[in-house]
Amino acid sequence: MNITFTEISEDWQVTLIKHSLADHQVKIFAQTAQEIDIEALAETEILCPFIYSACDQTLLQKLPRLKAIATNSTGFDHIDLAYCKANQLSVFNVPHYGEHTVAEFTFALLLAISRKIIDSVNRVKSGSFDFTGLRGFDLANKTMGIIGFGNIGQKFAKMCKGFDMQVNVYDIAAHQLHQEADSMGVNWVSLEQIFTASDIISLHLPLTSETKHIIDHAAIQKMQAGVILLNTSRGDLIDSTALLAGLHSKKVAFAGLDVLEGESLIKGEIELLHEQTKRASELQILLEDHVLIQDKRVFVTPHNAFNTQDALARILTTTVSNIDNFVSQIKSDNQII
Ligand code: NAD
C-alpha cells in the first residue's frame, strides 16, 4: 500500500512508523495535505493526516487511488464523512490514546488560572519575590460543570473529585453513562443546570453541527458572574464573539483555551491577509482570536493537550494497527465508516 502521513515532524517518532510499516511504501510529510504538492500525494491509498489537513471534497477528489483515511487524532471533524461514505472510503480514528493526557492538560490550565502560576513564575524571573496581585482561589468545594462525559470528561471528573470539588456532568448519552456518573459520585444534571450552577465549565465533547457554538451569547447570559470556561476540545464549540462579550462584561472571569475558533486561520494568516477582501468573516474570527490571546484573563495554548511522548506513541501504534486492520479487512472498533 502507498501510505501518506501528514503533519508528522521529525520529533514524532518517525522510526516507529517506518519500522512498523516496513512492508508498505510510506511517505511522511511535516506539512498539511493542503501544503504538499498534489503530485506527491497522487499515489496515496491510505492517508494518515492530523487535524490541520482538511480532508474535504476538494482534497479527496484529487486522490484517485485513495481507499482509507486513518487520522492520527480522536476528533474527525476535519474529515468530510458524507463524501467518504458516498465514495466508499473507510475512515479510522484513535479514540483512546489521550484520556489521561488531555484531562491532565485541562487540569493544568485550571491550576494555572486558579493559582496564577504563569504570572507567579514571570514575577520571580523578573527579579521580584513580591506576591502582591498573585492571590488565587481554592478549587475545593467549587462546582465544576462538565459537558461531555466520554473518555476525557470522565478522567477529568475523577481529577476534580480528587480536588474535593462538586462535580456536575451533562452528556447527550445520559442513559449509557448514568452508572459511571453514580459510581464516581458525580451529579447528572441538565445542560441548563451546567450553565446556571457552575463556577467552572469544561468542554469535553466533539465538534458537530449540533455542538458548534454550544457556548454562545444565550448560554453565557445564563452563567454565574465570574464563571471560568475551559475548552480543550474544539475551538468552534465556543462562539468567540460571545466569549469576548462575556469577558468584556466580566461575566466570564477567566478562560483556558487549548483550542480557538478557526485556529487553522492563525497558522495560515499571512496568506489570508493577502486575500482579505474574499474572506472577511474569517478575518473577523482571526482578529477575535488575537484579542483573546492578548487578554490577560485568557490562557491560550497551541492545541497542545494531546502532546506527550506517551500519547504520541499510543497514537502512532493505534494508527499502525488501524492500517493493519484495514489491509487485512479485520473489523475494528476504531472504524467510523
Ligand atoms: P468521547 O467520544 O469519548 O466523548 C465525547 C462525549 O461527548 C460522548 O460521551 C458524547 O455522548 C458526548 N456528546 C456528544 N455530543 C454531545 C452534545 N451535543 N451534548 C453533550 N454531550 C455530547 O471523546 P473524548 O475522547 O472524550 O474526546 C472529546 C473531544 O476532545 C474530542 O472530540 C476532540 O475534539 C477533543 N480532543 C482534543 C485534544 C487536544 O489536543 N486538545 C486531544 C484529543 C481530543
TrEMBL record:
Entries under PROSITE patterns matching the protein: D_2_HYDROXYACID_DH_1, D_2_HYDROXYACID_DH_2, D_2_HYDROXYACID_DH_3
InterPro entries tied to this protein: D-isomer_2_OHA_DH_cat_dom, D-isomer_DH_CS, D-isomer_DH_CS1, D-isomer_DH_NAD-bd, D-LDH-like, NAD(P)-bd_dom_sf
Keyword Oxidoreductase in record: yes
Keywords from the named record: NAD, Oxidoreductase
Superkingdom of origin organism: Bacteria
Record-annotated D-isomer specific 2-hydroxyacid dehydrogenase NAD-binding domain positions: 107-305
D-isomer specific 2-hydroxyacid dehydrogenase catalytic domain span: 17-335
Database matches in Pfam families: 2-Hacid_dh (PF00389), 2-Hacid_dh_C (PF02826)
Name of the protein this chain belongs to: NAD(P)-dependent oxidoreductase
Biological source species: Aliikangiella maris
